[in-house]
Structures are given as structure tokens and as C-alpha cells.
Amino acid sequence: MRIIGTKITIRELTFKDSKDFYEFGRDPSIGPMAGWKPFPNYDVACRLLSSLILNKETYAITEINSNKLIGTISIYNYGIRKYKRVKSLGFSLGAPYHNKGYMTEAVNLVCDYIFNKTDCELLEVGCHTDNFASKRVIEKCGFKYDGMLEKYKALYDGRVVDAYFYSMTKEEHERKKLI
Ligand SMILES: CC(C)(COP(=O)(O)OP(=O)(O)OC[C@H]1O[C@@H](n2cnc3c(N)ncnc32)[C@H](O)[C@@H]1OP(=O)(O)O)[C@@H](O)C(=O)NCCC(=O)NCCS
């Protein structure tokens, strides 16, 4: 998969991304907001990158005129809803690239891809209740608020977080494009 936007490109991960992936994931301001532990060293980052390449659910985000990985976006085959034709989104971006509209563009591009090129009928996404930037991205992309799940998840550091959940159906996505 390769999707070219106006600000960013979404492409498959490769082993050549390992240094950029480590730089991005070691930052303690990124992982914990998304529920994962910052990478403690380069080897851990390389092992995780290998498993992500094998799983084929996670893609690299790069700036439009660069091949450097600056973030990731994942399309998971599991989520809160347990039936077929539902996919779940996850995303994270390196701190130097925040608040430039990059992730809003990435999520919109992935929504178009999922509803136009796969048989997915519903896309869901969630964020911790204190993740205001993520909440804003999700709302800007037109997802509908489904509700809050208290004590959603115990994180690697023992914190138990509440989460907001959102969804978009194929029909809602098509209607959004008409507005
Ligand atoms: C969430 C994240 C992906 C957003 O990426 P981004 O490219 O900066 O997002 P965008 O620039 O497209 O949009 C960010 C929006 O959030 C707003 N925002 C940022 N910080 C905010 C805050 N603390 N409170 C309220 N709004 C905030 C911005 O103003 C912007 O909204 P606007 O366009 O209306 O001004 C990025 O912050 C990130 O990777 N965070 C750490 C990991 C993470 O949280 N991943 C998501 C897990 S669900």
C-alpha cells in the first residue's frame, strides 16, 4: 500500500526504517499517550519493527517529500466490536511534527482507502480520555462518538485508563464526502 496526500505519504514499513522508528518511539511523550512503553533501546525497537512488518497492520507515515518515517498508522483486524468487516485504527506521530495537520490527513486518507479498497463496513477508533490531541483528530475526521469505557486498560506502568470510543460506517463516510 502507498497513499500520497498533500502533506504526508503512507507506505509500508521496511527494515531500513529501524533508526527512524527507534528515534520516534523512544520519546516518552509519544508511546504512553497511545498506551505503549517508550522503546528502552535500539534492539527492542528493531524487534518490534520486525513483528510489525510481519503483521502487515502498521504503516509508516513520512512527510511528502521525504522517505523518513515520522510516525505510524495501524489498521487492526480486532477492536471493541467482535464481528467481521470491522477494522480498528491506531496512530502516533513524532513530537516535532505535531499540530501541522499531518495525522488528520493520514486518518482521512486511510478512511478513504479502507472504505473504497476493502470490504470493511465499520471503522472504530479510541483514545484515552486525557488525550485531547487524539480526540480532536478523531472528531475532525468525522467519527461519531459511541461512548466512554471506564477502566478500559491497564497500561505497562500500572495506570488504568478510561477511553472514549468512536466509529464510522461506510455509509457515514460516503455521506461525509457529500457535505
Ligand atoms: C495524537 C497525534 C497523533 C496528533 O497528531 P497531529 O498530526 O499533531 O494532529 P493534527 O495536527 O492533525 O491535529 C491536532 C489537533 O489537536 C489539537 N490539539 C493538540 N494538542 C491539544 C490539546 N492539548 N488540547 C486540545 N487540542 C489539542 C490541535 O490544535 C489540532 O486541532 P486543530 O486543527 O483544530 O487546531 C499526536 O499528538 C501524537 O502522536 N500523540 C502521541 C501518541 C498518541 O496520542 N497517539 C494516539 C493514540 S489514540
Describe this structure in words.
By secondary structure, the chain is of the alpha+beta class. The chain has a single domain (about 1-179), classed as Aminopeptidase, CATH 3.40.630. The chain has six helices and eight strands; from the N terminus they run ββαααβββαβαββα. It has helices at about 20-25, 30-35, 40-55, 100-115, 130-140, 170-179; strands spanning about 1-5, 10, 60-65, 70-75, 85-95, 120-130, 145-155, 160-170. An eight-stranded mixed sheet has the order 1-2-3-4-5-6-8-7, with helices on both faces. α1 packs across α3. The protein starts with a strand and ends with a helix. The model has no long low-confidence stretch (mean pLDDT about 95). The structure holds coenzyme A.
Helical amount among residues, as a percent range? 25-40%
Bound molecules: coenzyme A
| Terminal CA distance | 28 Å
* Rounded mean pLDDT score: 96
CATH level-two architecture: 3-Layer(aba) Sandwich
CATH superfamily: Gcn5-related N-acetyltransferase (GNAT)
* CATH structural fold name: Aminopeptidase
